[in-house]
Amino acid sequence: MSDYQADRLLDHDYDGIQEYDNRLPNWWLYTLYGAIVFSVAYWIVFHTLKVVPLPRGRYELEMAAAAEAQLKKMEGQELTDETLALMATVPARVEAGHQIFNQFCVVCHADKGQGNVGPNLTDNYWLHGSRPLDILNTVTHGVPEKGMAAWGGQLGPRRVQDVVSFVLTIKNTNVPGKAPQGDLVVPGEEAPGDTPAAPGETPAGTPAEGDGASPVGEPPTDTGSLGADVGTGPADTE
Amino acid sequence: MATADTGRTVRVEYNDSVVRAFLIATLVWGVVGLSLGVLVATQLSFWQANFGIEWLTFGRLRPLHTNAAIFAFVGNSMFAGIYHSSQRLLKTRLGSDGLSWIHFWGWQIIIVCAALTIPLGFTQSKEYAELIWPIDLMVALIWVVFAVNFFMTVAKRNEPNLYVALWFYIATIVTIPVLYIVNNLQLPTGALHSYSIFGGVQDALVQWWYGHNAVGFFLTTPILGLMYYYLPKAAGRPVYSYRLSIVHFWALIFVYIWAGPHHLLYTALPDWAQSLGMVFSLMLWAPSWGGMLNGLLTLRGAWDKLRTDPVIKFFIAAVTFYGMSTFEGPLLSIKTVSSLGHYTDWIIGHVHGGTLGWNGFMAAGVSYWLIPRLWNTKLYNEKWADAHFWIGLFGILLYVGSMWISGVNMGLYWRALDADGFLQYPDFVEGLISAGVLWKMRLVGGSFYLVGFLLMVANLTLTMQKGKFQSTVVEVPAMPKLQTVSSWALIKGKPVVFSLGVIVAAALFAVSSPVTFALPITFGAVLTVAAILYAGAEKREGGSWHQLLEGKPLAFTILSLVAILIGGIAELVPTIVIDKKAPAVAMADSTGVVPAADVQVVESRFLQQPYSPLELEGRDVYISEGCYNCHSQMIRPFRHETLRYGEYSRASEFRYDHPFQWGSKRTGPDLHRVGGKYPNLWHYQHLMDPRSTSQGSNMPVYAWLKTRKVDFTKTRGKMIAMRKLGVPYTDEDIADCQDVAKSQGTLIASDLQANAVTIEPDCKMVAVIAYLQRLGRGPQPVALEQAAAPEATPATPETPEIPAEPAAPVDVPADGEADGATQNGAGDLGQLVGGR
Fold first, then answer.
1. B391 and B501 part of one domain
2. Which positions 431-490 of B are in contact with A (Cβ < 8 Å)?
3. Nearest to B566 by CA among B517, B522, B500
């Protein structure tokens, strides 16, 4: 190494082609080393320590932020199924609801909502309606004759909404527990587009291919059925 | 390199005839490949340009264009250059004249077969690997012929050491078969049709491991080899740095192979593989630029030739484009950049910078340098060559520039949200139309390039006529007797041991926990420093370890093979093993067997169910028409994609997709959740006249799908093949397939009939509609009464949807989206059980 000399020819040629043995340019080496160091750091941050979310985790955040913004815009408006469904896509509200659930509801509905004194909330059988507004109504006013207390006064509307948001996320997760009670909810009976041909559903000659516009102000319920896959984070990442 | 010179000489007559043949083939196929490019570019701007002929649609000709450009044009130029330069570098005639000619004619026959089958719709639908299995076998066979011929040449060389160009040739020769064979593993169902043995995510990963490394080892390494021979020859200057050659060669071939997953960022590919693809692409930047540096810096002291010598002009421009592309590649591999650039024209611009700039100009430089020499004359007209250079350069810049702008523009169109947080441009076609002028500029740019190339063909043809071809005869010193080290001693040499140690440390690091990760990093760092101090300084008798290795082609080849295998094994094997397991876990869950907290389970609504016989046939029509060339089936996890197309695509939704159909470019919208979005009539009208439903669309008319019949006698064999690949068709499914296909076809035909469309239930149109309506959701009715799945799935209630949807019809357009998302996996009830 010490006898290095720039532009010194090696004592050989290949079909007349000679070679120098010059040092690798420093900037080139730094580029190489820098990329390696960056790669190691990237792996540590994203895969070893997992301190920054990966694409599917970011997606959850992006969707939640949009839902929150949407909810904010709808503040003061009458509560609808869609609004509640939207709340169920906001992790902060679902988490708050989960804590309220753990505090007040576990006694009768058990830790995962699989039912104990009260019915199993994770199946798809419902005694007093399965729509978000139905559930909200049940929690708020209770069903005294069946032993379900009215929580509206004690918790206040905000906390009731949170706990409903949480319940929507466990609905139909089918945790083994108390046997089903009430009516089986068979969605799809009236859900459009059940058969491949749903004539009249979308008029033939819809002008655009690939148009995906939800009407302005429409909550993005197109991310799935209410509470279907929210609150539990990225399900199938990694 | 101290070798005892014996003083004995041998007379060698090079086999230049086969070089001549390959050179002429390069010119011929170059014109074909470029003309096809101009034609398909025309079709993008003017959809009528297929003249209503099904064999000339974009979906069929685009694969022909890419295959012709890569394997016919660059392939022939590579073989010409390798055969010409290797003989000179090894100071011997080619190993076997017979094998050389088998190689030449075999390759041309393969090209002709490709040119016949691809337009006819015989395709595997894997990009740059579209050729059907009989042709795949021919490719593998001819490549073996090439390899044997090359190594026979090496074996009888009169030059002890291998020059750097030969290293790159060796890496090419050993890597291509590995890539080609693995990616083309397929189960034939007939003489012209097969299914990839990999499905879904696995198939995607294998394909892009292949696709990316086809660029690496077909378009890059052999051409770098050519650069290392022809550039210093033409410039008359020594190569800048021997040690740079060593470092960038090994780094390049080792790192390149890992970078494939950068084609699949934000897809359903597991995150660890995506991240590997990204970081290895970044680490590939410097090794790639090592080649550019050695090329450009070799010209020190000869820059004046840039003004006078067209050959040098082409080489310098080519190496510069190589540098640009290999910077742009890592840039595009950064996840955030990929989120904007993927599926857009940016990628098209990127690859054309590489192929037109690097490959095309290298081929031109080599041809301009070589043909006058082989024909013992001067170039017919230097001014024409100069003109070719400027016309071509202008063409590339126009092409690449317009594609960059169009790509970024399109990416921004797709993601733009309005003040309310919804799509600014809900109509996909809006983005398409905005690219109109840029696409025409691209067409002009490509045409310029073709004109320049034609000028070269004319110039070189006249040169050949003017001169007289003669194979070169030389007197060379005979191969000296060497005191040799054994290959094994070199293979277990310190550089190898240290490298493997660092690789092991890296692997340990990758799987280490948040507590332990510092250990393997330290271990790796210490090893690296030790390697530099200890192994680097080692001197042996007869030269350094690498100099000795250059005299041992077998050891060199083995080490190259090991270098390229590591990345492939590390990425492919876990994906294939893990992915095979995942659906089983998920299935178990849907039956309630697996405790919820234990596994991160796939929601069962995201579990793909097998296609019905008609849908399977429709899928084959989709494949055969090359729909994947313009339509993706992979919705990425971005809110704007969810708004436009529905929920992002899950890996489990593709488990029975042999081959996968994710696509890589969106000239049309994504189709993964198109099922149920529109009525059958919409699809019928859209295929008969795309502009009747989508004003401004550039999609070809597919009217012939209505008159062509599906051959249902083949369905049974296809289903049996699919079952062998793991699709759970029952005996009954297979036995009944023709009846079921017919009844489902009748169902669709009668629905269309109700809308005053007369159509045969067994035509391809009906099959493809059945397939499209199935995309992104569960089994569809195959007969009138039968409401539920024909397949093994129990008829369970549907989605966990809120039942009270009567209020929904308010938002008709959004419904399609909602359906696509929620009804996927209809017939299955599960919800998220994933614990965390």
1. no
2. none
3. B500
